[in-house]
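Technical note accompanying the year-one report. For the benefit of new consortium partners, we illustrate the data format agreed upon in the data management plan: each record pairs a sequence with a structure-token string. No post-processing was applied to the example shown here.
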Amino acid sequence: MLSAYADLVAEFPAFFSILSGVLGAVVGSFLNVVIYRVPAGKSIVRPPSQCACGKFIAWYDNIPVFSWFILRGRARCCGRPYSFRYPFVEILVAGLFLWSWLVFPPAKAVVGWVFLSGLVCATFIDLDHLIIPDAFTIGGAVVGMLLSLGVPALHGFQGPDALANLIQAGSESLLGILIGSGMILWIALLAEVVLKKEAMGFGDVKFMGAIGAFCGWQGTLFSLFGGAMVGTLWFLLSLVWKLIAGPKRNIAPPAETPDGKPAEIGLGVHVPFGPMLAIAAAIYFLFAHTWFDRYLSEFAHIFRAIAAP
């Protein structure tokens, strides 16, 4: 099996890369359904995709990315416009799947697909509703722990001793859950004392635990501080956006939401921290882990040298 895979890769080096991108677009189309239906408490399996007018969407009008451009953003059945959010998510997931496939071995790349899909869903649901459902926080932590046991390479353990790899990867994942959620919980509690109001939702605490299950404690540390940097950039962009578009505008690009009230962006408007954590976690997972983990190792080495008698 492995030799056949190696022969196919050698003969058609771009085949699996193209396949991963196409699969990402298809998964992105499904994630659009998840993003819309999960907060509404609807099944993500039935009924099939429907237009806002109630008619079912034909398969040839539901081709990822292409259908939106072919139809020029309007439903064939009633001419109703629908958001660019849909092809945007499909293109985004296709790019993330391709990137993961190009930088990781196959098993870790597939685990990355699961992790990145969860980040995308959590991001857009939080933007629309200011919540992150437990399926992507508690569920994400459980799935991350199980996948860590099944693919120890997720945490860098690939030695000849399979049992040792499993134990080390499981410990790393559990440590990531505990440190990640505990760290942001204390920050949230301290901020609430200082500001005299809730500064961070408990969903962010659970979400950080899910990130830690996949990325370890190092990934949670990066996500926390990286998310703060993303938030600073977000604030600056919102300031520019206010000057251009007015005091409040929908966070781009809005999709249909069950309550019909997509979140807004602008000064004075509450902006969720979950998407910022997700962006930082994706950055860490896809490329920043190499230099950030090395930096932490060097820092720990210097600290031990100073502390040694």
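Partners are asked to follow this layout when depositing records. The two ends are 54 Å apart (CA to CA).
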